[in-house]
Structure formats: structure tokens, C-alpha cells
Amino acid sequence: MSAPTQRITIKDVAAAAGVSKGAVSIAFNNKPGLSEPTRERIFAVARDLGWAPNSSARSLSTQRTDTIGLALCRPARLLGLEPFYMEFISGIESVLAQQSCSLLLRLVSSLDEEIDLQETWWRKRQIGGSILVDFHQDDPRIEPLKILGIPAVAVGHPDLTGGIPSVWTDDASAVAEAVRYLAALGHRRIARVGGPSGLGHSAIREQAFLTTLRELNLEPSPQVSTGFAGEEGARATRSLLLHPDRPTAIVYDNDLMAVAGLGVAAEMGVAVPDELSLLAWDDSQLCRLTHPTLSAMSHDVHGFGAEVTRELFDVIAGRAVTPRRVATPSLTPRASTAAPRGPRA
């Protein structure tokens, strides 16, 4: 029989950091009396050993802080253009207003920078909890934030979020509906322009896309992974339309890329929807302002943000929560999709 795993204690953390047990307590309760380098060393040792002061974390989480944190690893310029996050943040704010709370929004350049930022927010009592977005496979934020004991809600499928309470949409089912709809119209060459391949939800959508094509006995069509900016969607669309066996339908991962794709089709003289059908994702106002109007997988993004925030307040209050699936994006057909009728259909 193997020996039981030794439980890490505050004494072990103190010894490894070269400080007293009292110093560890001071660090995690954010009390004065330690230099900043010493605090940082204690936190680093605790992370390495996998130790968290459970009673302290519970105590901190019950002390109300009227601010919720949200860090986004996105370029500032893109954030101002992308409809999803504008709607998502408006949903967050709708609940925060009811609770007389505020949102602390920061843009970061990497997940490591976000980990450091979340630790600073929590240690300095700047936030009462945090909303975590854009999960990757084996996301590096999970363990450090668990150790810190930050009340948090993850936006993502539970398979990606490592046990952090999560709110999510069934993207796989939505992708399957989109592909089946286009196939029912008569499309046999269906392509996809997706977000960065490292993002967990992009991987889920990619797998669902390929699985559904196989189920329909359709040949796998090109998938292009790119950023979410309009110019990246345009570049991806141009490459697909220059392909010798170009698709007759394209599914996009956001509205901004779909609008850009519509512009490229006009530039290249490809008629939408006669020669090319386009299907957007999220269904923001952009989809109704184009000509032709864009079909989309409609998603109540404002309501999604509100639901995530309500879940976070449950976590902060210590109420039991389970992964919460919100409404699956559903098809809204408009003028950009039709049966292929062009010469290359």
C-alpha cells in the first residue's frame, strides 16, 4: 500500500518561503507589515505547493466588495468594434446596476498577465469576484485562481473550465444546425471561418463542423482559423473564394467577419446568395444593416452576460451552483442564404 500523500500546511509554506507562519497569514489577509517582495514570494511558494488558506479565502469572499473584475485578452481596437463583447458587457452592467456594483474592466496582452492582474485585484481587495472568458484547452489560469480562492464564474463549456463554476452555450449543437440547414438548401461545399484555434470554443465548433459534414456524407471543406477582426475575416474569405473548388456556403464565428466576407464577395463579383451563402454568428444589429441582410445563428448575448453575472453573485454569496447551460444559438434565416443557383453550384 502506498504511503498517504502528505497534506501541505501553512507551516510548510512558511518554511519554504523562509518566513514565519504569522507572515503567511499577514500576506493572505492583506494586512500591513510585510514588504511587497516578501508577499510576492509567499504567494509564489503557495502556488507552487498547491496550498490555499481555505478559512481565509472564505472570510475574504464574504466581505462585500462593490466591484466585479473582467479581464480581456483582446486588442483595444477590436474590443470597440466587436458586437459580442459590447452586448455581453451591457448584460453584465444590467445586473451590476441592480446590485449597486461596478465593473472593473482591463485589457491584457496574455493569460500570464491576466493571472498576475487577478492576483493583484484579489490581494488588494479591489474586487469581490471575477468573470473569466476565452478559455483555452488546459487553460493556465485555472489552478492559480483556485489557489487564490477568488470567487469566479467561467464563460465556457465545463470541459474547459476545470471545475470553476461555468455558464455556457451548446456551440456544438448550434454548429450542427447551421451545417444541416445549409446542406438542406443544397450546398455540398460548406466552409467555415473560425476564431483562433487555441480557444476552446473554437475547437468545439471545429469538431462539430467536421462531425456534421461526415454524418451528412459531405466532403470536409476548408476551415480557416483566424482572429475575430473584420480584416482577418476578409482575408480568410478571399483565400476561400480563390480556391479552385471554392465553397458555395461559409459559416463565420462572429458577425464582424461575416460582414467583411460579404464585402469581399462583392469585390470579387461573387453573387450572394445565388453563388455564395453566408451565415454569421451572434446576430447583432450588423446582420440587419447589410445588403443583403445576413442570416445568423441568433444568440441573446445581453442575456448571456446577465446570466453569468447572476451566477457570480451566487458564488460570492456561497450558494451552491452547478454548470449552467443557457439557450443554444438558433438559426435566423435572412437574405444571405439560399439554394445555390450560380454557375459553380
UniProtKB/TrEMBL annotation:
<dbReference type="Pfam" id="PF00356">
    <property type="entry name" value="LacI"/>
</dbReference>
<feature type="domain" description="HTH lacI-type">
    <location>
        <begin position="8"/>
        <end position="62"/>
    </location>
</feature>
<dbReference type="GO" id="GO:0003677">
    <property type="term" value="F:DNA binding"/>
</dbReference>
<keyword id="KW-0804">Transcription</keyword>
<dbReference type="InterPro" id="IPR028082">
    <property type="entry name" value="Peripla_BP_I"/>
</dbReference>
<keyword id="KW-0238">DNA-binding</keyword>
<dbReference type="InterPro" id="IPR010982">
    <property type="entry name" value="Lambda_DNA-bd_dom_sf"/>
</dbReference>
<dbReference type="InterPro" id="IPR000843">
    <property type="entry name" value="HTH_LacI"/>
</dbReference>
<keyword id="KW-0805">Transcription regulation</keyword>
<dbReference type="InterPro" id="IPR046335">
    <property type="entry name" value="LacI/GalR-like_sensor"/>
</dbReference>
<dbReference type="Pfam" id="PF13377">
    <property type="entry name" value="Peripla_BP_3"/>
</dbReference>
<protein>
    <submittedName>
        <fullName>LacI family DNA-binding transcriptional regulator</fullName>
    </submittedName>
</protein>
<feature type="region of interest" description="Disordered">
    <location>
        <begin position="326"/>
        <end position="345"/>
    </location>
</feature>
